[in-house]
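Chapter summary example: a protein plus S-adenosylmethionine.
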Amino acid sequence: MSLTDNCGRPLLNLRISITQRCNNRCVYCHREGEVKRANRSAEKMSVEEIVRIAKIAISLGISRVKLTGGEPLMRKDLPEIVSGIAAVPGLRDLSLTTNGLLLGNMAKNLYERGLKRVNISLPTLNAETYRKLGGGKLEDALAGVKAAVEAGFCPVKLNMVILKDVNVGDVPDMIEYARQTGVVLQLIELDPINVSNNYYSTHHRSLDEQEEMLREKAVTIEKRQFMHNRLIYHLPNVTVEVVHPIENSDFCMHCTRMRVTSDGKLKPCLMRNDNLTDILTPIRKGANDEQLKELFVKANLLREPYNKSNQ
Ligand code: SAM
């Protein structure tokens, strides 16, 4: 049985930010909605603390866990985090979102430790645009994609945040690359969080045009009811998923997530920082499992759709 919030939304997914450190500097990064820390060099949560939080969540029916950051692969102890969470009974899915730059050498080990899926941020296939957006080398990210596919992750997804006047024209090439590589492409609408007003107004673009093109080409279209009602377009030999959160009450009404910030706070919504529940301090003060479950229950009741329907 899973927890439900005051709007009847089940709590099924946990997204844990395990570090704020990153080896890329994406100009559009929402940093998972976290406030920038002064000291970003040190990790705030230990392996044991992260695994304990995941364990409590899983005991409450949250069966899907995603690791994020910062860049999760910056942590040398990531393999231990993965095996610790993967061993928890009741877990159905463990995945990771990464820029892929360090994945080439790590994919196999992470797969063997129990990681099931990876999402790799890939905003473009143009090396110069890639470098300008984040500073990294495209070839390293592509090596990460190759290694992920070879390791056996299924599916591998490419996360492409759509940026007006930057990469909109790259969508057809990305679809073709996804088809050839056997991965799923996710087109993601730019979120305004932690992005300057100027950047957002210059580069935000609705995904309507892309969705129209996908509708025309799709053989079938599916809806992910327990993941924001996202649409999945099955084109011949390739799948494209669309993430369209902005002013979308349907997206929020089908949100099934809780986040954990890199400094150990339960965060009900990407867009807000005024309703966090500290779980790390109670862990360090010796709270027992029942007390930690209570914190989850309390945080769950603070979940509410950011965009609400007018009806
Ligand atoms: N470093 C990892 C990575 O690149 O995937 C994990 C952190 S990153 C913040 C997690 C995901 O958020 C990536 O897929 C990225 O594309 C997406 N993302 C970052 N900034 C965004 C924004 N402003 N709007 C929408 N998605 C964004």
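Key point: The longest strand covers residues 156-162.
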